[in-house]
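Ligand-bound model needed. iron/sulfur cluster.
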Amino acid sequence: MEQPVFRAVFYSLTAVSLALMVWQFLAPARLWMKGRPIRWRPNYIGNVAKYVLGQFKVQGSRPKSGAPMHLLIFYGFLALLLATTLLAVATYGPLVGIPNFHHGTYYLVYETVFDACGLLFLAGVTWAFVRRLSFDRRWGRPGVSQETGKPVFSLNPLTTETKDYIALLILFMLGSTGFLLEAARIANRPQTWDWCSPVGRWLAGLFPALPDGAYIGVWWFHYAWVFSFFAFLPQMRLKHIVTATMTVAGSEERPLGELVPISMKEVEETGQIGVTMATDFSRWHLLSLDACMSCGRCTEVCPAYNVGKILNPKQVIADVHEALVTNESVATRVGEEALWACTTCNACVEACPVLIRHVDLIVDTRRNLIAEGKLSGSGATMLRQVGSTGNSWGTPASSREDWMKGLEVPLAREGAPFEYLFWVGCAGATDPGAVKTTRAVTQLMLKAGVSFACLGHEETCTGDSARRLGDEFTFQALAEANIETFKRYGVRKVVTPCPHCLNTLKNEYGQFGAELEVVHHTQLLADLVRQGRLEPAEPGAGKVTYHDPCYLARVNNESDAPRSLVGQESNLNFTTTALVQEIVKEPEGATVLAEPEHRGRKTLCCGAGGGRMWMDEEPGKRPSERRVRELLDTGAGTIAVACPFCRIMLDASVKQFDDSIRLVDLAEMLQEANA
Ligand code: SF4
Ligand code: SF4
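Prediction:
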């Protein structure tokens, strides 16, 4: 590109393609700015370092999610970008006093390393192409029915449009024409150091006799793809290079299980509760809609979608986006049935590589539906019950102490000082199965000499289900009443057998002034065993499988302590190795923990969260049935649980499959060894 006219054309085309790209982003940016201002201070640099440069979420995804393919494309692309930048600095640097460093050993390393990176990039792009093609073959593509003219839904979690193939073609051409350019240079002017560009040298060997102007032709051909890349980027899934980076950079550091409160002041100012139109979401939430690249990771893990319900988290994002563009009501566009089907298990949020918060979008829309009186049936009955009695089951406060019969349970109102408040929860005080857990935990704490007390009839529901169903003000009333009680008794530490209560007390009560240290019963019990204050469990010979509750394992990152109670070696930072070794060394009657496919943070929801436990389920579409089938596939005769909600849901399904299977809380197993 020696001649001034070529330079002028090149710079003009570069400017035009970049301007085209920016111009196309302006329209969506105007829509994002219609949202509510964000209320948090993002850690821009930390977020970009972790989630963009480090590809933290992508690296943590399931092996079949296409993660290695994305890593090849991403790091390959980044390397090529770096190579082009270094070349530009070497070329234009002398104009501003930077000497041209593009020679010598540096040049040899540059050529060798970036040649290899270019190959890896092309391998990733080819992989992506083949992957999309195979998904399309297996599942089919969405389209429009020729009979009805309506869109045809596809079960393909990786739905592909023609422009996705065009995007891959552009990427492929960017990489391959770069090699062609190198080959043309080698064919025209071979050098002794060309061995460090093996791909270019090999290609050059394929067409040794190039006419004089060929190099310039190949050069323009390569840059035609570079210009196309910039000019068409906002129209393609590739736009996530920009939008996902912005979304990740601006994301909020908030626990997975924490929902954002609505204030009465806000309701008075806006005259509405929750979200009606997409512009009621924050600007960040609206931007995040454009960061979605329809990868389908969220859909693949959604327990509702996987049992054939209408809810499809990827589609929710597309629908909210459509509602934003068309100015339609969010609930109408997404569909109420889909909105109520969510268990708020957060599997989608955990899986999303660009940190989209599906649960925020769903719960905020539910809040408006609740305010409009759109929830009926058993879910609405539960909300009325919890509002009037403080118990989701609707039993009176006086019955909260029925489970204590025959036990010496210390009560806070008796006035003795205590270390832990034992938070029982509605299920733990009411449901017959969950009561067994409550009693076992109590007996174990008494035996180990733990200083604790219960609130008895002074305890009310934490409001978890009400909040996740969208009844924010019932939740807030319950939270404020409980926090008053905590203050009265100076409560600082809480132990609870319910992961839903744990999440709400630990991650959400702080919004209303509570300062609590909250642990799950398995965490406390594992600690007591480690200290020698309790005997380890003796579950007997045979296989035990453990079902990780979403709100313990995924949402609150605890999968280690429960496993330690059945002899599974700890691989997280909760140190229980001594106990584990003791059990594992036992030759006779040792327990084998048979792990299901979905475990730890990637556990599969039982279907109870988000208020779904109180809602009717169509037979054959129960997430608990799918989960039980998977647990039974391990060949275990005992299913261990650590959540009263999971216990209720799995119990109903276990009975359908195999009556001989034992379903038991880990605390009961431990209690049997300590009776
Ligand atoms: S929401 Fe996230 S996980 Fe789901 S399709 Fe979009 S980018 Fe993928
Ligand atoms: S939270 Fe769970 S149930 Fe709800 S959309 Fe996400 S994956 Fe599906």
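Strands lie at 143-144, 151-152, 420-422, 452-453, 493-496, 517-520, 542-546, 591-593, 638-641, 662-665.
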